[in-house]
Amino acid sequence: MPEPLLLLSDVHTHIGPYHILHGVDFSVPTGELTMLLGRNGAGKTTTLRTIMGLWQASSGRIRFDGRDITASATPDIAHAGIAYVPESMGIFTDLTVRENIVLAARSGPLDKTRLDWILGLFPALKRFWNLPAGNLSGGQKQMLAIARAIAEPRRLLLIDEPTKGLAPVMVRSMIEAFKALKASGETILLVEQNFYAASALGDNVVVMDDGRIVHAGAMSDLVADTALQQRLLGLSLDAHQ
Questions:
Q1: Are residues 107 and 212 in the same domain?
Q2: Taking the CB of the first residue and of the last residue of the chain, which one, N or C, has fewer CB atoms within 10 A?
């Protein structure tokens, strides 16, 4: 079998005196959407930040596209083709929507065909194209953050809780956008607390608890097993429909 696009092997991460990740092992296959689930404080965000080099792994290995990036600097990891959308979104609220997206295309002028594709994913951004990003709703800001991440082609998207705090109608819009991203062949590692959204999108699922991987497999298997949902996450899909 071909090597997965992203592979974490026995990754440990310390933040100051705190040991946050304890031997994390999982993979992200090319062209699929992998969900990273777990209760609050399980280590999901730390995992994304460690992959991105924002926090250095204390030990273990992170391989991306066959290359060891464990000790690589964040700019080098980004240049290799990984984009990260943090929970805080990281947009420039004083700049217009257009300026936010143009600035994200660091390699040169934004390709018009790609821009049309992005605006097709997130039509609201076109309506607010020349307005300050600070005027957008929470869901629209999240859409802008993702649009910035895909302003240029990326090999892997790391996205942290894109539906957090969003109204149900906006969650449904976000699900449809991610379905379109999947259909285009994007590889995505997505942290999500909304199990309904996770079940609608995930090809694969990795579940964390207390900085460790406690389950990995097909998302469809977890969706079908309410007892496993309850044991791993303290919830069931039926309660989140």
A1: no
A2: N
